[in-house]
């Protein structure tokens, strides 16, 4: 069944047609609908929320109350979460549990606090891997991974589950964590209603079709209307200018809208005069004037200038996206150095009180090392940073103060755009590209929409503002095209994992497990793509049949004749390539034999030239590079590229060991001896570079030519016409075969990947052939099924081989860090410090296991996992042994917030080892390690 798709209107005002009066029957039916709506649960819910529901919210809630799952796709800030909150209301009213899932812990924490405020602590719980609060409550907020783990473990907490809300469901496109969303959707019980909340994606119908296929009747409700209109601007030097021309509707700009002519003129003027804004020749600290920027080089406006202009224009509070943690911290420092103060005395006192209340539990001895005092002073002046490297309590405090309107500017990385409820009046983008882990990549329309979607606070702002800082790498026309594309397709990133494989085969037979994976959204999209490819294949087949008819010859089989012609052509190309390769080999051989003092004879065009070899070197490809002296005399460099015919040594001239070739007299003397040697030397024999290359190929070509001339079709008067059609047939047939290969590759591609994963797991002993001809999970496989770390197989192999046995609790915590830590590419690596002893041995063995598994993955055609990283072994070991935080982090590039985040991930794995380790002693050691790591700033949580 196709999903019920309800697209809401673009504008907030709809025109009603009053030209026709309703009939009595229509008025009666409308009265019945109103009466039924007034008695509905939606009416009860709407009466308690304090605002009028939008049409798309009401439509989605009505569908949910009627017993359908719903997919809601709407812009950031449109109020999608109201539908999720209505699911919570229905669950509480009907006595069934509701799970509210989010992609990140920060969002789970925030949603937990919101639901506690609405329903009370006794009815709401929280599960986020390292935090468990009231886990058996009627409503439980959790990360999506926690729900996946519960489904595989068959947790009793799933009993009486009626509703699952998947917030930010478009996160399933994430290449690292996205598969978890699809696992949950596929494995939830059939009677559970699913509420999927997504950003506005262009293929919502496709996603809804898939949800209907795997979950049953699913209504799709799409709204492309932003409740707060968004205006697009560009800041050129210190001017904030509209991006679009005056005739463009900013709420519906259409594709590639024209840009503002004033903006174009400002850009041209900035390019002529350089970066410095008028009247801004002094530096940001009020110091002496800086030297003028070179003409044509346009830099974005300085950060303090940006803040001042936003403040003057009434565009605060603002989020400034910097895309770098270090950049965020530097931006706060620069803004503070410029003496910017965005708060009054009363606001500063209120901020100080909030900071004191929220940070009261932080250990006093750690305040200096976590940067508490500088962070607090910046907040009291209305400025803050927000990124994943901050302590959780710092991030939560910044979020609370910004939402309350006390902090006015937040410099943030893109993680802030993911679901956290921190709307602003304005969003500023310092650049339009960001580091994606491997390279600087341009923002996609989806990323741009997600970031700028934070602008405009519903119920507070009449309009939101997105501002891009102009620099010489910003093209306003390209920006207009980027900003006007407000939807983007949702693409599945689903792929089988080791943990997924053993969990599936623990409950399903091998054929059923393959069928389950073939129900994934990834396979659904691949199969839909095959439909278009198959249509093209049919067209190709029709064209091939037409070409075959056109090349038919009455004298014989022209297909065979054309094949002979193609074989001859291909062999002639092979012979030409072989001769070229032979010539290259001959050139390299002649140059490789050259020695210092040799007199070389070589050809350039029709001229014969000579040179004296001074030095012989090699380039990066190990090809000879000769430094020579010519008769002129000049010193130059010769390579195989400049000697296509090679060179021949015809004489020898001694070159003094310490010859000073900068001395013109010495050069002239050597050149004279070179000319004398050339005159006395006999002419060089002509080189035969190719030699007998291609002789065998030539014989084969001669035989094919003989067969070609003997073929009946060779005598056809229309032979060349037939040959033209045969050439078209051959070209299209090759294209058709490639197309068929693409279809074969896409069809059942997920199941084939699953087969490869299972083959590797069978080789390692986690699976074994079953009695029914399928695969069964071994005892080792059952341990793997309880390990949910990203490097699950490395972890399982270390346990299976006993590599961590005998380690004490602190050493176990340190070695576990290798399977969770991954050094950031934009930061310096921390010292490993594994050293010798039991810990050093365990780390080195873990690295060897990781390398070995990578090789096995390559052999089986499985994408290689990321290698383990021993970058924080020493500091985790020191922390677990009781060292203070300042001692632990001294001399490293790791911030306190990052350290806490890695420790929480280590705790998550240790918690898994406490139940999944194969021996009792290992489980006890894991529990002791948890106690050692969970202390001080790591133990403290504001939730």
Describe the structure using short key phrases.
single chain; 943 residues; alpha/beta; 9-stranded mixed sheet; 7-stranded mixed sheet; globular
Please sum up the structure shown.
The protein is an alpha/beta fold. The two termini are 43 Å apart. The model is unreliable at 1-19, 278-295, 689-693 and 826-832 (pLDDT under 50).
Notes on the structure:
It is a single chain. The protein is α/β, with parallel strands linked by helices and 943 residues long. The strands form 5 sheets. It has a 9-stranded mixed beta sheet with strand order 1-9-2-8-7-3-6-4-5, with helices on both faces. The chain is globular and about 110 Å long. The two termini are 43 Å apart. The model is unreliable at 1-19, 278-295, 689-693 and 826-832 (pLDDT under 50).
Strand order of the largest sheet: 1-9-2-8-7-3-6-4-5
Q: Characterize the main sheet.
A: 9 strands, mixed
**Could you say which overall geometry the principal axes of the C-alpha atoms support?**
globular
The secondary structure category is alpha/beta
Rg calc? 36 Å
Number of strands: 25
Count of runs of 4 or more consecutive helical residues = 33
Low-confidence stretches: 1-19, 278-295, 689-693, 826-832
Average of pLDDT: 83
Euclidean distance between termini CA atoms: 43 Å
Amount of beta strand: 5-15%
Bin the helical content. 40-55%
